[in-house]
Amino acid sequence: QSALTQPASVSGSPGQSITISCTGTSSDVGGYNYVSWYQQHPGKAPKLMIYDVSNRPSGVSNRFSGSKSGNTASLTISGLQAEDEADYYCSSYTSSSTYVVFGGGTKLTVL
Amino acid sequence: QITLKESGPTLVKPTQTLTLTCTFSGFSLSTSGVGVGWIRQPPGKALEWLALIYWDDDKRYSPSLKSRLTITKDTSKNQVVLTMTNMDPVDTATYYCAHKGIAAAPGVFDYWGQGTLVTVSS
Residue B36 above 60 pLDDT? Predict the structure, then answer.
């Protein structure tokens, strides 16, 4: 069982917006602004999309945005495109001995 | 340009020790704040963080696997090595190494290797 909880799947139509949640505790998501999000296409390595809750690395589309409220972080993808269909993982620093935790992943389907 | 590549055996037997090498370029593991981590992913399952080594040789391990893991670095060779003892079929996974940047928080990996699939079977 992953330390961070994500929905198993979400879906949306092209052009729509979707949001993926990532729920943790006050020891990780809620306690630090150290949440990151990764996109993973089948057979490929993960790609960093968001770090420190809401920052985008250079080259990542501004259609991707992150936020946090309490112990839950969220990834929003606006203007959905077919290429956004992938698995998405959240991650956080944690003050527990675990140090780094990942979510269970969310499969995004673009209808 | 930062690149990382994992190498090691594709098949190991139960109870054996796995040794994986991450060879990287485009950065130095002697630069303050830089780290290299290992993350694995069983087929069809989620990512799992394993270990992280920093420029100053500070090492962090997943508590659930700490007794079986050792991470080391060879700065002169631009390599990080992960060993995992007493391998079991449940350790079958794709193993990734990844770069943690200077300003990045722990666990923020901005560059990843392609991954290497390790199968544990007799």
Answer: yes
